Request: fold
Amino acid sequence: ETGVTQTPRHLVMGMTNKKSLKCEQHLGHNAMYWYKQSAKKPLELMFVYSLEERVENNSVPSRFSPECPNSSHLFLHLHTLQPEDSALYLCASSQEAGDLLYEQYFGPGTRLTVT
Amino acid sequence: KNQVEQSPQSLIILEGKNCTLQCNYTVSPFSNLRWYKQDTGRGPVSLTIMTFSENTKSNGRYTATLDADTKQSSLHITASQLSDSASYICVVSAGSASKIIFGSGTRLSIRP
Reply:
């Protein structure tokens, strides 16, 4: 185990539903990340938090809303999603936010299907 | 435009054989590069990090190389095992969290 857990592991939701993804890290890290991984495409960085403050927002649609109540927990609130939002959503943490010198530890991901 | 290209997209080899995965990047300025292994249904796990001054680094049966002049990196796997079946992702950094560029990965399958 990497020390980063994500729930749920699988989620099926309709386009009118509201759901939340949860991520928890047990590594004492200060930075947390949300990524989207679609089939045969590179990981796409969605949000970066450092010490509970959002430091990066990569032009993500407003139907995705992140929340970081403390340095150990990260949420991704979902509402009125589109079928093209179906993907694997990965959470990661690192000691600090920055470049690759700070290794990112990934959770197992949430497989999201939007119907 | 910052890009990371990996080749081949997929590869099938027999157990016990060696293989080399390629990564070409156009990221600038270059800060460092990581190779990740992603098993099916799991998140990526770092295999190694390469900084500008490093040419080669080994981690068990995995050996990564970096040529900063040609902007190429490779990951060589020796004496492959069935557990090496996974996607291998090359990631290059230009120095900040928002300037980390992921490749699409190489899907490696090891056949018994």
Notes: Chain A is about 0% helix and 55% strand.
